[in-house]
Structure formats: structure tokens, C-alpha cells
Amino acid sequence: MHRNILLSVLLLTTGLYQTQSVLAQHSDNFIQHTIEWEIGETGRLQSTVIEVYVKERIVTLTGHVWLYEQKLISSQIAWMTLGVIKVNNEIRVVPKNPISDKSIKQAIREIVNADERFRISDLNISVNDGKVILVGSFLSLHDPPRLKCKIAQIEGVVDIRISAAFITY
Predict the structure, then answer these.
(1) Which of 34, 67, 93 represents a domain boundary (last residue)?
(2) Are residues 75 and 113 in the same domain?
(3) DSSP of 5-70, one letter per residue?
(4) Segment (H or E) for 137
(5) Which domain holds residue 159?
(6) Which of 3, 37, 67, 88 is the most exposed place for a label (fewest CB within 10 A)?
(7) In whole numbers, what is the pLDDT of the chain averaged over residues?
(8) Which helix (H) or strand (E) segment is 150 a member of?
(9) Domain count for the chain
């Protein structure tokens, strides 16, 4: 009798493990197809080459885009997909018409000067090979991501890092 119970428990445990494995694989496939569909339906991602890999609900994005904004959008789509627990964004930004670091810096200055929130941030702007580094003080936690989204639309920008302090009164 004890052998029958032990055998039943063993079979039940094995069955549950196999079921979890099948469900995880199904979940990964569902996540991958959902992200691929969303990327395909997103207008700003037309004419990009993005591949999606999912293993154990961890998404890896690869390929190349021509604007840093497209890399951000792809990552956002992956993060917003139900079931995703982590996103590795390995997409490379390869501008169609790269512009000089000097031109990128000037475009950033124009963005900053056009918005009071950013003008008072006293930003230090550095651009090297399309990689932008900003250091400054902001009024709101929302300001650095807003600025990053605006800068991401500049062709030639391949990466953006912001070191932010916040002004308190």
C-alpha cells in the first residue's frame, strides 16, 4: 500500500513538473508573438530590424534601429507585455544619416532652451560618438525621462545617460 501511495505521489509530481514546463514554453511563445505583433503594428518601428527572443519570460531584443527613440519604444512594448519579468535590450542604434557630435549637442541645447523646466536645470552636455551624457539638477522626477525622450528623437544619438539631482525648496 505504501508503495502504491509513493508511486502515485511520484507520478503526480512528475506530471505537475511536465505541465509547468509545457505552460512555461507556451507562455514564452505567447509573449514572443505578442511582442512581435506589437512591434509590427507600431508605426514608429516601421523599417526596423528587431528580433525577439523569450526564455522563461525573460525577453531579449536584438537587431538594429536608426533612432534611439525606436530602441526605447521596443523596450517599452516588451515591458508592457503581460508575463514579462525582465527585458534585455541589445538593439543597436545605427543612424541612417549620422550627424556630428557638435550638431547633436546643438540640437540638445535647442531642446533645453525651448522648455523652462530644462533651462533651469543647469545641464552639462557631453556628446562623444553619438553617446550623450547629461548632468544636471531637475525640479521633478518626470523631467529626466521627458528630456531623454526628446533627445532620443535626434538622429545620430546612439545612447543617453542622465545623471540627475533634484532641486528642493
Answers:
(1) 93
(2) no
(3) HHHHHHHHHHHHHHHHHHHHHHHHHHHHHHHHHHHHH-GGGTT-EEEEEEETTEEEEEEEESSHHH
(4) strand 131-138
(5) 101-166
(6) 3
(7) 88
(8) helix 143-151
(9) 2
